[in-house]
Amino acid sequence: MRSPLPLFTVEDYIIAEAESTIRHEYMGGYVFAMAGASEEHNLIAVNLCTLLRSHLRGSSCRVFMSDMKVKVQDDIFYYPDLLVTCNPEDNHRYFKTQPNLIIEVLSESTESTDRREKLMNYQTLETLKEYVLVSQDVMQVEVYRQETPGELDS
């Protein structure tokens, strides 16, 4: 019989992640390693970041790429491909809690998580106005907008 996996506290996760060379997402004490991304994935993310930085220049909004975590709940942390936060008080060094925009570039290994789990959990963020899914295989972009707090509509 196998012994259960050890659970990490949020504090242990934050400390370990700051020193790790591999990114990990965190859900309820469990830590999941993130796979590397394809060339197409990286080019799409860089292009989107460049466009967003240019568009938001002069505003209080800041754009972060895939190395910045989002704290979705007390025990859930994700690494979106891009996030925008416009609140200057959203200033934790290793994660953000008040994103206005989150973008995920879909890949075969993450698409189902991005479409289901993350979509559901991101809806709990009151500040989130848009969640965007960008395909890297076909020309397709899906935008979920929050019309009512807690509900993202496509």
Automatic annotation (TrEMBL):
Superkingdom as given in the UniProt entry: Bacteria
Occurrences of domain Putative restriction endonuclease (ranges): 11-149
CDD domains found in the cross-reference section: DUF820-like (cd06260)
This protein's name: Putative restriction endonuclease domain-containing protein
